[in-house]
Amino acid sequence: MSTKKSAAKPVKRAATQPVTAKDNFKSMLIENRVFKPSAEFSKKARISSMAQYKRMHAESIKTPDKFWAREASELFWQKKWKKVLEWKAPFAKWFVGGSINVSENCVDRHLTNGRKNKAAIIWEGEPGDSRTLTYQQLHHEVCKFANVLKSHGVKPKDRVLIYMPMVPEAAIAMLACARIGATHSVVFGGFSSESIKDRLHDCQAKIVVTADGGYRRGSLVALKKNVDEALRDSASVERVIVLQRTKQEVTMQDGRDFWWHTECSKVSAACPAKGFDSEHPLYILYTSGSTGKPKGILHTAGGYLTGTYCTSKYVFDLRDDDIYWCTADIGWVTGHSYIVYGPLANGATVVMYEGAPNWPEPDRFWDIIARLRVTILYTAPTAIRAFIKWGDEWVKKHDLSSLRLLGSVGEPINPEAWMWYHKMIGGGRCPIVDTFWQTETGAIMISPLPGATPTKPGTATLPFFGIDAAILDEDGKEVGPDQGGKLVVRKPWPSMLRTIFGDTERYKSAYWGTYKGIYLAGDGARRDKDGNFWIVGRLDDVLNVSGHRLGTAEVESALVSHEAVAEAAVVGRPDEIKGQAVVAFVTVKEGYKTDAELIKALKAHVGKVIGAIAKPDDIRFTGALPKTRSGKIMRRLLKEVVSGGLVKGDTSTMEDLSVLAQLAASNGKDDE
Ligand code: WT7
User: Fold this and answer.
1) Distance 438 CA to ligand 1 centre (A)
2) Which of 201, 360, 487, 658 is 20 to 30 Å apart from 63, CA to CA?
3) Distance linking the first and last C-alpha atoms of the chain
4) Which CATH number covers residue 636?
């Protein structure tokens, strides 16, 4: 491992005592239970012991070029690179001079390596319909749609916005873009038309790919309608391609809107995969930061594919006979890296499910696993907590014996949920890989390797190969065991973001502005005496709601855009299911009544501006917000108020102390 031995002594603590970091974030309880992979699992795994992991990790840190070059050469390059890495901090170029086609690697490569008739995607729609696409069939569909895009004038580096339900065509559209060198930007199907509009405007997409609608918890989602609204005053979009999924009524605008199936019937199925520069932009994915405007995270072809390919292979220890299911939506980075690019580059069989986990009953997941004989399940703590709440009887109805490995992603998994996942879903026999990573990192950064790493409930354990993760204090010094600090990565890695689309200054300041040449993840963390990383939460104004990042500033600006609102401050409150719930403190303009009616209207308004996921759980009206003398809202105090805690700490910089008392008095939920 890469850690330099620190002089600081480990702090001795009782088993249940919380560790409090210097800057006042609380970490989880010290966890002493250790789960080692079974001898049987280890025997078959690629990485089968800690000694092997440690040796390979040390090598990969000492000579990263050698490690990554070996991994990259397992992919197909139309032209080999000249140099593995060119690092002019904070700008990296990986596999310089190399030429690659991402789509060819995820699809065509498997037509000649024995996987031609293997299932690439096994899809199930929410109403119960299903489809299986072999690699050969996937190839056919991807080539056709690539030709459709071309026939509508899409050129390399043009941006294509994809706003789709969880259907195979979402993956097909992504792979078709990759095939012709267009840059996709997938917008989560749960986002509102306003969100589409902002993203469209930022990335200047030329074409939008959508569907008439999708199914979610038994109802229809009006995707095309949302696109229509978003396009009302868009200058960049020339075409909209619409997949027919639900057959709900939609308006098609002559000359602008075209049906997917009609267009596909007009083109040939031959679309040779041309090589693109390794640093060719593959996609932009928007994610929340600490200001109101989402950041367009840019990933490029060669490095991103190497990272997702390699992590999928080792972290899930993917095998040809695996039935692999990642339950994320394709609209998030997890869907990009671990439904589409990573697993398909490995030639895996991927399960894709369209709808809600509790439709028609809360056992839909277990039913799918039992029927399809899923072997690897990769899901999120928020889902696990919901399953716990819905009751064990739903799980017990099904035979989950096909499972051999479980994964978790999106937020720290609380030990209780970990244990339930381990026992109830994994039958006590499946290793759990708790994978820490981010939209920005492109691929998994910290995670157990299932055949090697002893796991403890709640820790993502150790850095992946080539990842030089550390925890630093304010002065940039590495902290000792069990001391809190900032999580950083000290060396570049192939799947790292290259920039924020259109905002290089923000890229530099958000990720590289704190420590010179070192990547700042934005999470607080500590390492235990065994070197395991415990992520304890974001250090910036970013909430983690159901495993999804939400900027407090985004929700605030949505609230303030309502006519009744003068000012708003948003903070997170710990929530049993969602991890964090959204609490909004709102001051209203003169003449507006602070009643249940307004609360309802404001929630709906945020849903309309951003999407249902951002709707505040609580809205509290207040006469004023606590502020520093310079006018900054004191979120720390608000957080303490919503967590039910007393207001402690230094309040001398507050503008109006009485404001706090008023807020504390308003403590209590405002239900709709
Ligand atoms: C943030 C990134 C990575 C795909 C999904 C979210 C939190 C993510 C873990 C984990 C503790 C985690 C962090 C991170 N996070 N995985 N295993 N343990 N925290 O991607 O939307 O870019 O969010 O999610 O806070 O910074 P994202």
Assistant:
1) 5
2) 487
3) 52
4) 3.30.300.30
Q: 519 - beta bridge partners?
A: 489
SS3 537: strand
Ligand 1, atom 10, lies closest to the CA of 436
**Cα(215)–Cα(166) distance, rounded to whole angstroms?**
9
**415 preceded by a cis bond (ω within 30 of 0):** no
Q: Select from 341, 435, 455, 535 the residue to mutate for testing ligand 1; criterion: most ligand atoms less than 8 Å from CB.
A: 535
486 lines ligand 1 (CB under 6 A): no
Let me know if residue 656 belongs to a domain: yes
User: Could you give the CA distance from residue 145 to residue 264 in angstroms, rounded to a whole number?
Assistant: 6
The verdict on the CB of residue 437 being under 6 Å from ligand 1 is yes
567 by Cβ neighbours in 10 Å (0-12 / 13-18 / 19+) ranks as middle
Q: Is the CB of 331 under 6 A from ligand 1?
A: no
| Residue range(s) defining the domain that contains residue 609 | 542-665
Strand-pairing partners, residue 121, are 133, 350
> Residue 490 phi/psi, 5° resolution?
-95, -10
What's the rounded Cα separation, in Å, for the pair 427 and 391?
A: 16
CA–CA gap between residue 328 and residue 236 (Å, rounded): 30
The length of the chain is: 672
DSSP 38: P
Instruction: Extract the runs of DSSP E, i.e. beta strands, from 465-554.
Output: 469-472, 485-489, 499-500, 519-527, 533-538, 542-545, 548-551
pLDDT confidence of residue 77: 98
Residue 635 lies in a domain: yes
- 439-454 as b/e, with b when 16 or more CB fall inside 10 Å? bbbbbbbbbbbbbbbe
In a domain, 529, yes or no: no
- For 99, phi then psi, to 5°, come to -130, 130
What DSSP character marks residue 412?
A: P
pTM metric for this prediction: 0.91
CA 294 – CA 304 distance, rounded (Å): 21
Centre of ligand 1 to C-alpha 383, Å, is: 14
Q: Residue 539: CB within 6 Å of ligand 1?
A: no
Helix or strand holding residue 417 (H, E): helix 415-420
- Tell me which of 334, 435, 437, 440 to substitute to probe ligand 1's pocket, judged by most ligand atoms within 8 Å of the beta carbon: 437
287 lines ligand 1 (CB under 6 A): yes
Pick the atom of ligand 1 nearest to 542's CA: 25
**Backbone dihedral angles phi then psi of residue 284, each to the nearest 5 degrees:** -120, 130
Number of structural domains found in the chain: 1
Q: Is the CB of 191 under 6 A from ligand 1?
A: no
* Predicted pLDDT at 631: 79
Tokens of 419: 């244990």
pLDDT at 7 over 60: no
For residues 156 and 282, give the distance between their C-alpha atoms in angstroms, rounded to a whole number.
10
Residue 83 pLDDT exceeds 80: yes
In tens, the pLDDT along 422-480 reads 999 999 999 999 999 999 999 999 999 999 999 999 999 999 999 999 999 999 999 99
Does 548 map to a domain? yes
Q: Which two tokens stand for residue 246?
A: 């639900």
Residue 663 has what pLDDT? 67
Instruction: Name the residue with the closest Cα to ligand 1, atom 20.
Output: 438
124-145 pLDDT tens trace: 999 999 999 999 999 999 999 9
The closest-lying atom of ligand 1 relative to the alpha carbon of residue 521 is: 26
